[in-house]
Amino acid sequence: MSPPAIIAPSILSADFGALGKACSDTIHHGASWLHIDIMDGHFVPNMTFGAPVVTKIRPHVQRPSAACGKGTFDCHMMIAEPKKWVKDFQKAGCDLYCFHYEAAITSTAAENPADHSDSKTSPKEMIRYVHEQKMLAGIAIKPDTPVDVLWDILDNPDTKEVPDMVLVMTVHPGFGGQKFMASELPKVKALRQRYPELNIEVDGGLSEATIDKAAEAGANVIVAGSAVFGAKDPADVISKLRKAVETRRQS
C-alpha cells in the first residue's frame, strides 16, 4: 500500500509577526510536517528567509521521533546553489532537505556559502551529501521538467543516493497563491505506479477543491498554504485533506 497521508502546511502563508506560535499551532491543529519554502531570488524571482529563521522556529515544534515523523521540517530549497546550504540548514533544525533537480544539474560542488568551486555537483551526489549530514533527502521538479529524468536516480542500487521523497510542483515555483496545475498529475501517477512505497509530495494550489485529483493520482504528502493558514478552522481543513488521501491510498 502507498504511504500514509502527510499534511505539510506551507508557512509561507503564516503570520510572520508571530511565526513561532503559528508553527506550533499548526502542528496542534493536526499537521504532520511543516513545509518551509526557501527562495534566494536567483533560482526563483522571489525571496523568503534563510537558516536563521528556521533556527528561531525550531524550538516551537518538537523534533520528530522517527524519520518522516510528526514535526518534520520539510525545507523546500528553491535556491541556485543547494549544496552550499546543506550544513547551515542541518544546524538550523531541518529534517528533510528538498532541493531542485534543475539546480543540482547546474550548480557547483561548493559546500559552504563563502566557498567557490569549479567542480559541479549532481542530483545523486546531492542526495548522498544530504544523507551524510543526517537528514532526509528530497528532490523536486518544476512543471517544465519531465518526470522521466528521475528514473535513473530512483532506480539507483546505491540507497545512499536514492531520495526519500519526490516533490512534483503543481505551480511554477516562486510565489504562493497560484492556481493548481492539474497538468502535472500524470507525473504523480507515473511515480506512484513505478514506486508504490515512495513519499510523493505535491505543492502548489492544493485545497479542498483540488485535493481529490492529487490524491487520486497517488500523492500522499500534501503542501497547502493559504488553504490552511487562511481558514477559519485550520484543523478541519487539515482533517479533510488527510481523509482525501487516506481514502485513496493505493495497494
List the helices and strands and how they pair.
Elements: E1 6-9, H1 19-28, E2 33-39, H2 51-57, E3 72-78, H3 86-92, E4 96-100, H4 101-104, H5 123-132, E5 136-141, H6 151-154, E6 165-169, H7 185-194, E7 199-203, H8 211-217, E8 221-224, H9 226-229, H10 234-246
Parallel strand pairs: 1-8, 2-3, 3-4, 4-5, 5-6, 6-7, 7-8
Helix pairs in contact: 2-3, 7-8, 8-10
Record keyword descriptors for this entry:
30% helix; 10 helices; 8-stranded parallel beta sheet; alpha/beta; globular; 17% strand; 251 residues
Instruction: Please identify the structural class as seen in this structure.
Output: alpha/beta
Task: Describe the sheet with the most strands.
Answer: 8 strands, parallel
Overall pLDDT score:
96
Q: In angstroms, what separates the terminal alpha carbons?
A: 4 Å
Numbering strands along the chain, what is their spatial order in the largest sheet?
1-8-7-6-5-4-3-2
User: Portion of residues in helices?
Assistant: 25-40%
N to C succession of SSEs: EHEHEHEHHEHEHEHEHH
> Any idea what the radius of gyration is?
17 Å
Structure description:
The protein has 251 residues and is α/β, with parallel strands linked by helices. It is 30% helix and 17% strand. Helix 2 runs parallel beside helix 3. The protein is globular.
What is the compact description of this entry?
The protein is an alpha/beta fold and about 250 residues long.
